[in-house]
Amino acid sequence: MTDRVIRIIGVPIDLGADRRGVDMGPSAIRYAGLNARLQRLGWQVEDLGNLNVPVPETREIQDTHLKYLPEIAKVSAELTETVAKALKDGVVPLVLGGDHSIGIGSLAGIAAAGKKRGLIWFDTHGDYNSPQTTHSGNIHGMPLAVANGIGVRELTEIGGPGKKISEENTVIIGARDFDLDEREMLHRSKITVFTMSDIDQLGMKEVVSRGLEIAGRGTEGIHVSFDLDVIDPSEAPGVGTPVAGGITYREAHLAMELVAESGLLLSLDMAEVNPILDTHNKTAELAVGLICSAFGKKIF
Ligand SMILES: NC(=[NH2+])NCCC[C@H](N)C(=O)O
Ligand SMILES: [Mn+2]
Ligand SMILES: [Mn+2]
Hints:
Number of helices: 11
Largest sheet: 8 strands, parallel
Shape: globular
Strand content: 15-25%
Bound molecules: arginine, manganese (II) ion
Distance between the termini: 18 Å
Order of helices and strands: EHHEHEHEHHEHEHHEHEH
Number of strands: 8
Helix content: 25-40%
Radius of gyration: 17 Å
């Protein structure tokens, strides 16, 4: 595995969320020892540093249904190019958020590189809102919908027209909090949703195995987009939108270990770490642990 390269792309953005602070996520994750720990696993690490992201203090909200749209569109376009280039260079992009609007650029970049890959979206939320269904106007509640062609063209056409995901190969795991119309739209889509209730009933192993089968079917591999708020707030307090009843520490690791074992993982996002709300960088540490599990770390 020594010849394999992970390219780290930091996206210090919090324009997509109401709570400030996730812009410090990339720092907190690096501070938790990301690069050295990946190297110890035998990976070569290329850290590109962070993309340039404006801070909200220098901007004004123009549309309350799509807060900071021009700024997020610009960052997403840059991320799209950066991810597409990484894939063309044959390295593995690891995108550090930042709020989950980073999913827009990651998925557009994958599509722009001409890759047909499945997607597993670990999240409490569906992130499947449109400007019409959103209650918050926060774009981090929309990236999966955008990738599926729903929303304004400023976002859906980043990296080219058309859908950036194949619905049949898209799976959400760990969901427990939808907005009403968002839930309706997801029901009407061909996206597979495994809720917390499914995890309770089937167990994480079965859910992830089924998820990998669905996401991997007929594709070159999968992208995993991991929102730390999928984990129970007792283990991951440093997230912007915590919701009770999440997956456990071990369930999260098991999921990543199964992803690694499948050999399907081609790119990864780690989103929504909020150091301001964290205790002693616990959530960022967990994020690094999960990244390592996803990239092959075994207990024994
Ligand atoms: N990536 C996230 N944490 N998204 C939270 C979204 C919450 C809510 N559904 C909204 O649209 O605002
Ligand atoms: Mn999310
Ligand atoms: Mn979430």
